[in-house]
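> @MW can you paste both from yesterday?
MW: sure, first one:
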Amino acid sequence: MKKLISDLTEYLGPKNVIIDEPDKQPYVVDWRKIISGKACAVALPSSTEEVASTVRICAAHGVSIVPQGGNTGQVAGAVPGEVGESIVMSLKRMNAIRAIDTKNNTMTVEAGCILKNLQEAANSAGRLFPLSLGAEGSCLIGGNLGTNAGGTQVLRYGNARELTIGLEVVLANGEVWSSLRGLRKDNSGYDLRDIFIGSEGTLGIITAATLRLFPQTPIRHTALAALPSVDAATELLSRCRDEAQEALTAFELISGACLRLVQQNCPDKRMPLHSIDSPWYCLIEVAHRGENGRSLENFHRIFEDVIECEQASDVLVAQSLAQAEAMWGAREMITSALAHDGKCIKHDISLPISEIPAFVRETDELLQARYPGVRNFTFGHLGDGNLHYNVARRASGDDADLHAMQPGLSLLVHDAVERRSGSISAEQGIGRIRTADLIRYKAPLELQLMWAIKRTLDPNGLLNPGVLLPSFEPWMELRGVSSADRCCR
C-alpha cells in the first residue's frame, strides 16, 4: 500500500492525495452518517487523463476505487467499506463547463460540476437544464448520472438518463470511452451510454457528459392543494394532466405530517400556509411560454371542480415569486426536518400511480398493527409514481428502538411494493444499504445478466466493490441458483 500511495503522490502531487485520517473523514462517511468506512487514501484528479492514469496505477497494484461526487446520496453508494483497502476518487476538481451549444441545445460538462452551477450556466445562455434536486447546491452531476437521479421535474423532462446525450467514461483498465458528440440519433450499435448511467460507479467512472438543454419557460404557476386522501391526489393529478398537458412540470405529494415536521423543526422557514391541518397536500407547477393572464386563468380553472366536489378542501395559488418559493422551500426542507428529528428508515420506492393510494393506505395500517406508534412521513413525486416512504421512531422511543425494527419493517414495506409490481429503488440507487434487498427482489436471471456486464467491464472487481451488486456466491446460495445456471461466474 505504501508503494501505491507513493506512486499516486508522485503523479498527482502531495496536495491531491489525502492520507491523514482526519482529512479523510469527510470522504469516508455517508451523508446520513449511517456508514463509516475506511480508505487507504483519497485521490483528487483534475482531468480525464489524471483519472485514467490513477485507475491504471490502482489496477497495477490491485487496489479498488470508490468514485465519489458530492457524497450526498441516501444509500451510501459513494463511500468505501470497512476493510480500508480501497482509495476514494473524488471528482470535485473536475468542474469545468467545456461547451454550451445553444444551436444544438447541449451542454458538455465535467463530472465534478455542481448541479446548481449547471442550472445557472444554462440560464445565462438563455436555456434551461431542468434536473432539480433538494441537494442541487452540493451534489455533482457525475453522481447524478451514476444514480440516474430524478427530482421534481421528471414528470416533464425525465430522469438524468433522458437528459443525457453522451458520456465520457474511464474504464476499469484505464481506457477512455467517449460519446460526447451531441448526437440525438446514433443507431450504430448498443447504446453504451445507458449501461453506465445508473451503474453507481461499478462499471466505469463518468468524467464528463453532454446534456440536453431546453427553451426557458418564463411563465410559471405554482399551487398548493389541501386534500383529504391520496385517492383525491391521484384524481387531481389526472385532471391536471388533462388540462395542462405538457405544461405540467411537477406534481408532488406531501403528507400533512411532513409539513408539520418542517414547521416544528425549521421555525425560520417561511411556511406557505398559516394552518397545516389537512392529511395530504399536493404541490403543483405548470411552466410554459404562453400569455400570462390567460394561463393563470386556466390554472385556476383546474381546481374549481375538485373544490366543488370536495376532493380538495383548499387550494392556494401563488400570487408572487416569494409565495411560490415558500411552497417549494417547505417541500425541500422535509429531508432536513427528518434529519433534525432523528434517525428514520427510508424507502425510495416506485409504483404504478394507480396503485399508490391502496399501497399507502394498506401499508400504513400494516405498520401500525405490527409496530404501533411509529410515525410515517411520506412524500414524493406522485407524477412519476415515486414515493419517499419514511418511517420514524415512536414518540416515546429512541433511535435504538427504531434500529431494532429496521429489518422487519423494511421487509414489510418492500414486500408490499413487490405485491403491487413496484420497485424498491426509484431514484436513489442501491448503494451499500440495499444490496440485500436487491438479492431478494431481483429475478435470478436479471442478477446473472447484471453480473455478466460487471464481469466483462470490470473483471477484477476494482470499481466500487460492495456497491449495487452483492458478491456472487451469497446471492446464488440464497436464491438457489444451480451450478448449471452460473453462466456468468
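MW: second:
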Amino acid sequence: MSHLSQEELVKQWESEQASLRQLMVEEDTEDWQRSPDFTGLERVGGVDLSFVKGDDVNACAQLVVLSYPDLELLYEDSQMVTLTAPYIAGFLAFRETPYLLEALQRLEKTQPNLLPQVVLVDGNGLFHYREFGLACHLGVLSGLPCVGVAKNLLQVQGVTKSQQHQLQIASLQKGGDSFPLTAASGKVLGKALRSSDSSTKPVYVSTGHRISLETALRLTHTCCRYRVPEPIRQADMRSREYLRVHFPAAADT
C-alpha cells in the first residue's frame, strides 16, 4: 500500500467499499431476530481495538463472546497487532477490519461452537459517509450479522451536533427511547439510543450486516447494563487491561 499516494489509496478504497456495499444486507436474516425476546440467540460478540498510549500503530485487537441474555463471558481473545494501513477519515475499516476478522476466524477454527451469532462493533455501520462503516465491512467479510454502536456522533450526510440534535437528546426520557438519524436525502441511517435510564448521553446504533435497524436497536438496548452495550464494554475493558499488563510504561493514567 505504501507505494500508493493517499489520493490513489482513497480511490482504491472507495472502489472496494462500493463493491462490498453491494453485498450488504440491511434486513433480518435469522429466526432469532424476528422473536420478541430473541429466542434462539445464545452468543453475542463484541470487538474493539485499543492502542498503546501515544502509539497509533500498535494495538490490542479484542474479541469477546458473551452468553445471551445473561451477558456472561464465554470466550475472549486478546492479540497484539501492528496496523499497516494509514488512518484516513471514512476508511477506518481498512485499518481495523483485518485484525478483527482474524480474531473471528481463529475462534471459528478452534471453537466453532462459540462463534457469535451477532457481533456488536465499536463503530458505525450504515451511518457513514458512503453508508459502509466498520460494522458493515466486518459483517460482509465475516458473513455474520453485525451492529454498529458508536459512542460519539459522526457528523455526516447532514446530521450534525445542532441545537435540534441536542433537543432531541434531551427528549429521550428513559432507557430504550430513541430518535432517527436522518440524512439530508431523507434516508434514516441509524438511531440515537438512550441505552439505560441512568445514562443521558446516547449511543448511535446503525445496521452493519444481516440485521434491520429496529432489531439492531432492540438488541443493543437489551445488551446494555450501562451506557455502552456489554459486549463492546467488555471488549474495551479487556483490551485496555491487556495493554496495562503488557505495556505498563504506556498505560493510561
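> thanks! Helices lie at 6-21, 92-110, 134-142, 163-170, 213-222, 230-246.
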